Amino acid sequence: MTDIFASLGNWNWLIFGFILMALEVLAPGIFLFWLGLAALLVGLISFAVAISWQIQLVMFAIFAAAAVPIWRRLARPKPDASTSSFLNKRAEALLGREFTLEKPIIDGSGTVRIGDTVWRVAGPDTPAGTRVKVVQVDGANLTVAAA
Prior knowledge:
It is a single chain. It contains five helices and five strands, in the order αααααβββββ. By secondary structure, it is of the alpha+beta class. The chain has a five-stranded mixed beta barrel with strand order 1-2-3-5-4. Strand 4 (about 130-140) and strand 5 (about 140-145) form a beta hairpin. Helix 2 packs antiparallel against helix 3 (about 30-50) and helix 3 (about 30-50) crosses helix 4.
């Protein structure tokens, strides 16, 4: 068995790495990719520095073991991205912004156009064309005050 390892050359690590990465394409799971990357690193280092096959195997084991926590850290979602997102909370993104009334607020109800959407607004009676500021959000209803 040791004769097989001793006879392996630098190219074998590169070939082994590419085979593992090709298997990853056939059976995706992002596991074989990191083993293939570890084999490629050992192959590239062994081209630069003449090292024994025992050290090459140890380097492969270290690179493969280190790849898992590095991958988990890179794959972890950013915590602030999910908390600051207004996905499914579109009205909350409008809080504090100013818009121009499309239809006047009469008896506490009017409309404002935001982009291509018409929103119902509530607030004191105000003529059309007046700038208003969103002060409260309740579902799809916006409460406004004079800006």
